[in-house]
Amino acid sequence: MKLFNLDLHISVIADIKNILTEQGHTIDNWCLSGHSWVFGKEKDSVDVVNQNTWRQLDENLANKFYERYEEDLKEYDGFVVTHTPCFSMLYEKFNKPIIVVASTRYEDPFSSDMLKWMKFNKYLQNGIDSGQIIPLSNNKYDSAYTEYFTNRKWPVIPSLCEYTNSKYTGNKEKFLYFSKLPLNLNNKNLISKEEAFKSGYSWQDLYDYRGIVHIPYNASTMSIFEQYTANVPLFFPSWEFLGKLREEVKGTGVLSETSWNQVHGLNSNSYIISGLDDPNNFINNQNIMEWAKLSDFYDKENMPHIQHFDSFEHLNFLLEHVDLKEVSKKMEEHNKQRRREVYDKWRRVLQKC
Length: 353
What we know:
By secondary structure, the protein is of the alpha/beta class. 38% of the residues lie in helices and 13% in strands. A 5-stranded parallel sheet has the order 2-1-3-4-5. A 5-stranded parallel sheet has the order 7-6-8-9-10. Helix 1 links the parallel strand 1 (2-7) and strand 2 (26-31).
């Protein structure tokens, strides 16, 4: 198949493109991201929908995009949408399959507009029911989040991120601290990412550290997929300790990006729903932590060899005593299975198109 993608993010589509290309398909990608340089690309110049206009996306703008690019895009067999799912509206009139991958809270940019969000949900529901839209997610959190609001199933195909073409060595003396929460630990074995890299760095630069310690700002990030696939020993707070950290150090990066409402300074509730289990009720720590159970770093099926610490003292103990080579070896073996499963799932998806 020959597929087309217009994207605001670089990594999710890069992963999908890597997988589908190996399976004999092609994806042409127009990138609006300011980080396109990571993959050696220039940011594309696109009419109608671009960095300045995409937040105003509605039916009128989608029609203008169709009129502008009908001749350019009619040759494609279908479309792939990752960030953000609203871009699927651009392709409705082509009457061809649209693979929509929810990866970071699907409703952006409609979080604060009840009517537009509801209308977008209806569009997705109709598209899924008709078979034009093929819904997917690359993580369990966003799958459950999108199902919560759309009342439709969003099957999970985890990202692999083999595009880094780099693997764990552990050659450096220290562990890397990878977090938005400032490093205040008195541990000579740890170095923050900011201290380690005064300018740029490569994926291999990361993977040469003995391991990587995370205090996560989100339930799912591409860097976690990248590092796990590279067999890097990863250290995350246990669920109980993460909840304690989030309660004690509010506003410092602990799960601070699980809701667009929190990111954009909006109300602590979804604009189209109200309930105790609302995933955008970010001031309710207990509620947010219940949703956090679906995070990548607690997904024992997809990432079973992540190390969890119950306190910073426990982290210090793990950094001293964990057999890093053995952990990395187990990750390597598990990643072979992950790869087979992911490739098989994508084959089945393409058979639907």
